[in-house]
C-alpha cells in the first residue's frame, strides 16, 4: 500500500514513512492511493470476531508491505489489552433504534485511545534499532493530548510537545496531560488561544522549512493517517453486530476536526453498508454549514461545555474534498490555499452532491445537548458526556426509518466533564478507580504566548536536532 498527498506534490510513501511523517511536505494530508474493498462475504465473516481479530482484518490491507499479519496482530493485542472492558468498545442499547458505541474504556477515558495506543506502538516499532529521534508536535482540544501522552510517555526515540489552549479544556483533560511526568513529555498551554490557534501553529511548524528541516517532525493528531486507520475498525465492529452486511447501519458522530467521521466514510468506501453518517456539531458549526449549504467559512470559536468540538477549521475535511473531487491534488491545493488566505470557501456543486449522498449534519445548541443528557439518564439509565449528547441529539432528530439502527459514538467518559453532566442530570459521575487520584497528582506544564517564535524557541531548546 502506498500513500499520496491531498495536494498532489509530496512524495508517495509507504505505511512506515507515512506514519512517521504525519503531515505531507506540500501541506496536504496523506491517503491511500486506492481504497481496499471487502466483499459481503468478507464482512459477514467478521461477525463474532473479537475486537483484535476485527482490527487485524480491517487494517491489514493498509499496512501491506510494512507489517505482516502476525506483527499487526501482536501490536493490536498489546494496544487493546490495556482497555478496561473485555469487548474493548461495547455496544449499549438505548431503545428500539438507538445504540451507544462506548469508545472510552481506554487508559485516558476517550475514543482517542483506540487509535493512539496503537500509534504509540507503531512509533516504537518503526524507530527500534534506528538512531532517528522523532519530535512529535501536536495540538489538542483536550483528549488527543492525554491519549498521545499516555501512549508515548517514556518511549525511546520520541519527544512529545503538546499544545493546548489554556483554560479551554476541562480540569480532568488538562490534568491527564500535565500530571504525566516523563522526560520526553512537554506540555505547552497557549495563552489567549483557541484550539484552532494551536492547530495553526502546528501546521506552520511543519510548513516552515528552516524549523522542520532541523528536526524529524511527526504528528499524532488526526492529520496522521495511522490515527484514522485505527478508527475505521470500530465502524465494522459495531455494524456487523447489528446486522451488516445484510442491513445498513447509521452512525451519529460528534465531531470537530472531522477525523472520526471520515473514518466512517472510509469504512463505507471499503464496502461496509452505512445508511447515513450524521455529522453532529455544537454551535461551532462550520461542518454543518459546509454540508448543508456549502459554506465552509471560518467563524470565531465559541467556548462550550463540549470543548473537544470547539473548532472552526476541520483539518480532515480536506481529505473528504480530495476524494469527492476526483482526487485532483492540484485543484484541491488551489482551493485550500484560497481558504487559508480568506478563511472562506464555497464547496462546489459536485462536492456537495457527492457528500450529501452519505452525510447528514446537525447543529446542536446547549439546550438540546442538555436535553439529550437528561433523556439518556432518565429514560435509559445511561450517563453520557456533552460530546456524546450532541451526537445522540442529532441521531434522534435525523428522521431515519425505524428499521435503520443508529449508533451514536460515545466519545468520552462522563467523568471527564463532571460539571456539565451534573448540571444536566443532577448527578456527578465519579472518576474510574484507575485514575481516581488524578487531582492529587503534581502538574507540570509551560505557559507560553501563542506565537510562532515563542513556541518554536521552546521546542528547539528541548528537542533533539536531526
Keywords:
Thr_synth_N_sf, about 475 residues, six-stranded mixed beta sheet, 19 helices, alpha/beta, Threonine_Synthase, threonine biosynthesis, five-stranded parallel beta sheet, Rossmann fold, globular, Threonine synthase
Description of the molecule:
By secondary structure, this protein is of the alpha/beta class. The chain has a domain of 223 residues: Rossmann fold. The protein has 19 helices and 15 strands. The strands form 4 sheets. Strands 3-4-14-9-10-13 form a 6-stranded mixed beta sheet, sandwiched between helices. Strands 8-5-6-7-15 form a 5-stranded parallel beta sheet, sandwiched between helices. A two-stranded antiparallel sheet has the order 1-2. Keywords: Amino-acid biosynthesis, Lyase, Pyridoxal phosphate, Threonine biosynthesis. It comes from Sphingomonas psychrolutea. It catalyses: O-phospho-L-homoserine + H2O = L-threonine + phosphate.
Amino acid at each position: 500500500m502506498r500513500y499520496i498527498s491531498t495536494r498532489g506534490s509530496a512524495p508517495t510513501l509507504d505505511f512506515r514513512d507515512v506514519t512517521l511523517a504525519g503531515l505531507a511536505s506540500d501541506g496536504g494530508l496523506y491517503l491511500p492511493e486506492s481504497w481496499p474493498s471487502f466483499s459481503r462475504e468478507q464482512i459477514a465473516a467478521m461477525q463474532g470476531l473479537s475486537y483484535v481479530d476485527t482490527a487485524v482484518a480491517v487494517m491489514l490491507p493498509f499496512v501491506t508491505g510494512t507489517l505482516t499479519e502476525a506483527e499487526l496482530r501482536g501490536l493490536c493485542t498489546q494496544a487493546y489489552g490495556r482497555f478496561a472492558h473485555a469487548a474493548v468498545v461495547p455496544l449499549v442499547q438505548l431503545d428500539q433504534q438507538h445504540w451507544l458505541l462506548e469508545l472510552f474504556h481506554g487508559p485516558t477515558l476517550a475514543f482517542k485511545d483506540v487509535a493512539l495506543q496503537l500509534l504509540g506502538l507503531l512509533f516504537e516499532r518503526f524507530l527500534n534499532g534506528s538512531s532517528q529521534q522523532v519530535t512529535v508536535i501536536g495540538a489538542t482540544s483536550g483528549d488527543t493530548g492525554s491519549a498521545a501522552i499516555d501512549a508515548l510517555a517514556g518511549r525511546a526515540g520520541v519527544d512529545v510537545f503538546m499544545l493546548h489552549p489554556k483554560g479551554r479544556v476541562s480540569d480532568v483533560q488538562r490534568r491527564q496531560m500535565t500530571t504525566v511526568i516523563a522526560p520526553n513529555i512537554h506540555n505547552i498551554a497557549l495563552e489567549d488561544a483557541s484550539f484552532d490557534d494551536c492547530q495553526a501553529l502546528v501546521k506552520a511548524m511543519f510548513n516552515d522549512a528552516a524549523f522542520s528541516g532541523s528536526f524529524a517532525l511527526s504528528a499524532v493528531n488526526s492529520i496522521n493517517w495511522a490515527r484514522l486507520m485505527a478508527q475505521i475498525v470500530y465502524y465494522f465492529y459495531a455494524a456487523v453486530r447489528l446486522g451488516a452486511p445484510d442491513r445498513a447501519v447509521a452512525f451519529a458522530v460528534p465531531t470537530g476536526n472531522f477525523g472520526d467521521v471520515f473514518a466512517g466514510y472510509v469504512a463505507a468506501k471499503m464496502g461496509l453498508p452505512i445508511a447515513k453518517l450524521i455529522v453532529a456539531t455544537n454551535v461551532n458549526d462550520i461542518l454543518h454549514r459546509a454540508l448543508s449549504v456549502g459554506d465552509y467559512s471560518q467563524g470565531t470559536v465559541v467556548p462550550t461545555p463540549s470543548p473537544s468540538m470547539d473548532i472552526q477549521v476541520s483539518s480532515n475535511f480536506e481529505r473528504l474534498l480530495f476524494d469527492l473531487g476526483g482526487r485532483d491534488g492540484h485543484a484541491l491545493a488551489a482551493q485550500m490555499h484560497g481558504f487559508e488566505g480568506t478563511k472562506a470557501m464555497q464547496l462546489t456543486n459536485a462536492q456537495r452532491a457527492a457528500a450529501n449522498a452519505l452525510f447528514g449534519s446537525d447543529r446542536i445548541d446547549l439546550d438540546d445537548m442538555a436535553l439529550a443528557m437528561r433523556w439518556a439518564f432518565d429514560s435509559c439509565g445511561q450517563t453520557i458526556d456533552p460530546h456524546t449528547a450532541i451526537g445522540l441529539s442529532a441521531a434522534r432528530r435525523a428522521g431515519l426509518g425505524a428499521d435503520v439502527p443508529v449508533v451514536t459514538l460515545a466519545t468520552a467518559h462522563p467523568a471527564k466533564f463532571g460539571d456539565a453532566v451534573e448540571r444536566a442530570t443532577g448527578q456527578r459521575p465519579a472518576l474510574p478507580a484507575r485514575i481516581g487520584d488524578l487531582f492529587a497528582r503534581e502538574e507540570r506544564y509551560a505557559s507560553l504566548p501563542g506565537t510562532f517564535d515563542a513556541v518554536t524557541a521552546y521546542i528547539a531548546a528541548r528537542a533533539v536536532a536531526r
